[in-house]
Amino acid sequence: xxxxxxxxxxxxxxxxxxxxxxxxxxxxxxxxxxxxxxxxxxxxxxxxxxxxxxxxxxxxxxxxxxxxxxxxxxxxxxxxxxxxxxxxxxxxxxxxxxxxxxxxxxxxxxxxxxxxxxxxxxxxxxxxxxxxxxxxxxxxxxxxxxxxxxxxxxxxxxxxxxxxxxxxxxxxxxxxxxxxxxxxxxxxxxxxxxxxxxxxxxxxxxxxxxxxxxxxxxxxxxxxxxxxxxxxxxxxxxxxxxxxxxxxxxxxxxxxxxxxxxxxxxxxxxxxxxxxxxxxxxxxxxxxxxxxxxxxx
Length: 297
What we know:
Elements: H1 23-39, H2 45-61, H3 68-73, H4 80-98, H5 101-119, H6 138-149, H7 154-166, H8 168-171, H9 175-184, H10 190-204, H11 208-223, H12 229-236, H13 246-260, H14 266-282, H15 287-296
Helix pairs in contact: 1-2, 1-4, 2-5, 4-5, 4-6, 5-7, 6-7, 7-10, 9-10, 10-11, 11-12, 11-13, 12-14, 13-14, 14-15
């Protein structure tokens, strides 16, 4: 795979000793580029440096951690690629903590690119860049992002919540993160609630314990008369993420069917029916129930 660092606007060049290019070998240069860009006084330079990191990190994410033989071939020190992964993610997390919302949007775009790319990777050997195995000091990454969740700016909090969704692999076991996401559902700001629901879906896929807590909140929100229609739709779209166990799948499916009887609009009912179909596809125990459900509606 060539340098999708097309990010740098330069096509990949053959390796000096005939080996294919790997991201780990270029990681030091990428870290230096990012650091310089973030410190550059030229207007727009930090944004450019951040966005340039996206394709580079995506390429890197599709490669497994360099084994000792691979590291030796490329004359890399043992663990060097992990060290550079940690450094780049930490730099971006710190810029997210201290930057403006415009900076945070750029960083979020990078992490969305990497996290979505990892989910759709065709290479089973790729371990993904945003995992505990790749980020040595991942609690510090979470701490920096969580600091923004504690701010008084609703837009900043919404961006931080979506960042946590991208960092689900390292955030799924954090009880503190779970609490922040659940509390954000009570926000009077719609964008923040929508961001919390998006992140809730990401965490449900990774944490059965959180999925059970989320289930109760989702049912309450969809059933509550005061919940705006747009929020109901967002909450309903999380239902397919609840297929974490046969028991929870049945619970979610039965609750969804019951809610359809009192949902206010055709669009919301249709969205629930679609969500229950996706839920059924993920769980054998609900497939037959869903066939009957679609027949009745």
